[in-house]
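Appendix B. Chain record.
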Amino acid sequence: MISLLQRVRQARVEIAGEVVGAIGPGLLVLVCAERGDTEAEADRLLAKLLKLRIFGDDAGKMNRSVQDLDGQGGAGGLLLVSQFTLAADTTGGNRPSFTQAAAPDEGRRLYDYLVAQARAVHATVATGQFAADMQVHLVNDGPVTIPLRVAPAAS
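C-alpha cells predicted for this chain:
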C-alpha cells in the first residue's frame, strides 16, 4: 500500500460542498491499495501510522506519535482518504498509468478494511468517500509530509 502522510493542525474532506470528514490536530493520510496488497499490508500500514513519531515533544523534537497527543486534547485524529493516483507510473510519456493500483472493488475492500481496523483501535478516525470527487482542505503543520509504502511481505 502506498500512502502520503501529512501532519496537520486541521483537515477536512468535502463532497459537493458538504463536509464528510474532519479532524483537528493529527494525520491526513492519502492511501492507495496496489495490486497484490492484502489485509496484511493494511495492518502494517496502520501500525506504522499510529506509531510514527512525527509530532513535537515539549522540546520541539519529533518524538510523539498521533497516539501521544494527549497534551493537545487527546489522541490526534486520523483522516483517511482513498487516492488511487498515488500508484501513478509517469515513466512512459506524459499521461500517467495507474495499472499498479488495485482494481476498484479490491481497492474499496482494502480501504474499508483499513478504516474499520483504525476505528477499532484509535479514538478519532474520519474518512473521505471512496471513488468520490472530493475536495481536501488542510493546514499542514510544519510542513511535515512523508511518503510511506508498505510492500507485500516476501513469501
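Further analysis of this model is presented in Appendix C.
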